[in-house]
Amino acid sequence: MIYTVTLNPSIDYFVKTDGLNEGEINLVNEQSIVAGGKGINVSKVLKNLGVESVATGFVGGFTGDFVESSLRKAEIGTRFIRVEENTRINIKLNTGKETEINGISPAIPASALEQLEEHLLANLETSDFVVLAGSLPSSLPYDFYGQLISSIRKKGAQAILDSKGNPLQQALAHQPFLIKPNHLELGDLVGATIQEPRQAAAYAKQLVNEGAQHVLVSMAGAGAVLVSKELAAFANVPAGTLKNSVGAGDSVVAGFLAHYTRHGNVLEAFKFGVTAGSASAFSTGFCNAKDIDRYLPEVTVNLIEGEEG
Ligand SMILES: Nc1ncnc2c1ncn2[C@@H]1O[C@H](COP(=O)(O)OP(=O)(O)OP(=O)(O)O)[C@@H](O)[C@H]1O
Ligand SMILES: O=P(O)(O)OC[C@@]1(O)O[C@H](CO)[C@@H](O)[C@@H]1O
To answer: What Enzyme Commission number does this protein have (predicted)?
Structure first.
């Protein structure tokens, strides 16, 4: 089974306006209100690709009710822990440029943390993958992802982490199966400005040396890099018009995992993941299998170092 853990979910309020005039009334042309958060998005894309998952994390208040019920409506398995304060609301404003205003996370009591760990670990099997994705609610210790990954690995299961900064740095030593920073997040971590794929590969190698099994660095329209102990590879992205980048990174993770759990080949999963990211970036919602099939022939993976196999 695949479990996705979203410690800090959201309602994403997508709005489209002709522009933004500060200090004035701005009218919305288009809007949509959806359950969000990185792990939840991974579950949604997995569902689109015919792969079952169980979404877990913390939800609270009327906003949390909405998140849980919309996942149920989408027939995605849920096992959320309830907290008292409201799940946050994140505004995704598209004026031609994309602007995000992310809300304040609810407080997470220690009892809820324990409950989450218990529920997650109780039924974990060695063939399971756990996707840990997104920010930590501000009341959680920064090493919480590291702690969770350590417990997941003790159960013999694999963890995938999409996070940044200290929580990511701290988690590396626990040997996550895959991490997916974008080039800016990788740059922050290693204290460098990353402009091109070979540079990204060199810095990603440092994270492999620190414990990550595979590092997938997405570079938006400039392609992506995958680095493991034995190899480094580059994938280009297909041509298309960017419609909405929110959740494109989550689609990369979902695409990678959907392919890897079916076929077990890291480089092919890399190619499929990057294509899924672009297919989502080129649509207003998330990609499905047909979208990916359409763009897959445009994506090529080339080794920068090492041998396939
Ligand atoms: N301009 C683009 N053209 C083609 N593909 C793109 C473009 N922008 C993003 N993508 C796709 O989306 C993936 C993720 O984008 P990015 O590197 O910005 O990661 P991210 O910052 O994690 O994404 P997100 O915007 O979801 O937070 C890329 O690997 C690529 O597949
Ligand atoms: O604040 P975080 O947890 O880092 O990111 C949250 C978020 O921006 O990420 C998703 C897109 O990747 C959105 O659904 C959600 O609003």
So the answer is: 2.7.1.144
